[in-house]
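Example record used in the benchmark description.
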Amino acid sequence: MGTDKIVKIKNGVLFSAKGFAPHLRQFLPDITCLPPYRHHSDLPLRDDSTSTALPPPPMICTTPLSSGQTNGPVNSRHLLPSHEWSDIVRYTTAEDLHSLRLVGSKDMHLSDPSLTSHLSIRMDKAPFFSTNNSHTVDQIRRWLTNRRTLVINDVNSKICPSQVAYLVRNGFLDSVSDIIVMDCHFHLDIISILSHLPNLESLKLVDRGDEEVLDDLEAIITHVGRITSLQHLDIEFDCAISGSRLSVIREMYNLKYLRLRGFDLSEGMSNMSGLARLETLHLCHGNFYSSPDDDVNEKDLLHLMNMTSKIDNVHLEGFDSLSNNGLSVFNKSPNSLRRLVLKHCQELSKDSLPCIGRMRHLESLHIVNSAYDDAPIFESEDLQHLNSLIGVKSLSLFYVLQDVAHLRALWGMESLEVLNIALEENPDEEEVEDICLTVLSSFVALKRLRIFTEDGMSYSYQRGGLEIEHGSFNFGDQVFLD
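Model output (structure tokens):
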């Protein structure tokens, strides 16, 4: 490595030859680190949990380099104490820290585990979770003290249940608040053990298995019910589990965020009625791969009547035949709803628009369908009900416009900055110009127009102060709307 790799912190921004994001604290002093040693053997060990070496506390040089200064030992009188360097590192990402190690010197001791406690640790990579553990108790504790996030993302991992049980039982993981498990049916035993942790607040479970793993997934849901301290629960399965299994969330009174994808919600909705602190609700009936036999009865949404006053973000997907009756649940007083997404909700009743129009605090409204969904066609008289939404900044209307000119009926949306529309046919240049004239004359604050079709090409360009993006959208696609 060359001698030109210098790290500086100036005006609160960390720089190097690799480049760093400007997200450090503004009160940091000017700091310059000496260039790294030339040999790979001198580089700090990577944070992959494979080292048993425990270096002394980290220090950093505060004397700027002179123009002729090159590699050499750090003078101890120029080093900052450990706690000040820790303040810097805790604002870095894993990528930033890795880059910093590459340009740093050995004397900075950037492999100290205490510096990485703000980063997640891979249970499937760290050897002290496996049968091959050679770390001492003190070394393991150094790695796990104040660690908040655990991740499992390897179906072939050699995580040892008895080793994890020992760590849980003896408080090594008491600081853990967030857990993410991918392909979770492979890790049923580990999830069962981790569910006993005392301070869990966030759990994300993802699984791509089919109906052959249904029993394992249902068992996992049972273990989840043990974690009543959760504030954030995110479950995404590719097969559809009976909504009756949601009885496990009845007593999760601390939940603020709930996302469920891969459940048959034709039953089980009543189990959410006691979640009075909920702020974000994301429900998908089945998923892209599994469509349950029965539709959700919108009357089941009435079970949510007692827990909607604090909700500011609602995403409903696959809820067919919604009308004023079901959506009125999210329009009760007091109302704090800021964002509403209705995705692939086929046969949406036109009488839902007056109800949505009464959600006066909305800032984002997205009605998203694919070309194959049975979507309603909104005329000018239907859209006029939304003119009371003067605070809406982003709006999506996918496959519900027969004529783009009907957007002129939305004269009340004075704050609209982002408009997303999906059309049956790819518009030609002249038609795009007509669309631009329509939206620019209707929405004075508009900054971005996105036009989607089923097979549209992705490109963007600027028309005055309006950014125009073209793209494709098909059933099941994820799309950025705000």
